[in-house]
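hey so i finally got around to running the thing on that chain from the lab meeting. sorry it took forever, my laptop kept dying and i had to restart like 3 times. anyway pasting the input first so we r on the same page abt which one it is
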Amino acid sequence: MAASAYAYDYFNVSFPAEYVAHVEINRPEKLNAFIEIMWLNLSAIFTRLSHDASVRAIIISGAGDRAFSAGLDVQAASKTLTPAPDQDPARFATFFRRHTLEFQACITAIEKCEKPVICILHALSYGLAIDLSLACDIRLATRSSALCVKEVDIGLAADVGTLSRLPHAVANASWVKDVCLTARVFGADEAQRVGFVSGVLEGKAEAVGEALKLARLIASKSPVATMGTKEILNYSRDRPVADGLQYAAVWNAAMIQTQDVKDAMLSGLQKRKPTFSKL
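ok and heres what got predicted. didnt touch it at all, straight out
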């Protein structure tokens, strides 16, 4: 797939390796802070990549060296947070609920994407940056990362994903409440210590290199297998073990009927690298 087919405002989409896509948030002059068109485009990009047979793994990062994303563009968002003078509370609440659900769905598009997504958190990573990264499958950070669940500092509870996903991503409820209630900035080493990120790299270039290495490795596997693994992990995260086991059995009852399984087994016996068809 040519990169020109993914022409969306405020994003660069490239294909640095076979079956690997790189999505770059591209508003560096505003620290990659999000305005509404950006989360709508983000959703469109990941929905499209999900069904792109030429893609098996995805990297997401931010343009420039100053920020992955400073979060929501508060100046632009303030207009949405203010009801019209003649708008009664119920009608404004209805509008705001619909708006928030649409916003949530745009970020959830990353989680729903069939392809594994690797997030590179670098420099400023505030508010919406945390929401977005938690919808990804693997998170890496750089030494310069300054991470923050910022929403309480602007007078509201985070409502786009962090408060729902962070407790599942980090097995330390005290730490989760600490960072969410204080809005304090924490660094990459602390994020790795609690399990929020799986790796810390010295700089952005090194992090992109490591992400590309991981993405290439994932892309070398059967796309049926990686899609199923992501699906079952996400399904099982929110449910009892018994439900996850049942879902995995039903999923593989269909998905095991593929040439990929035979090719993978034969390659192991024949000590060769397998190749797999596109989805």
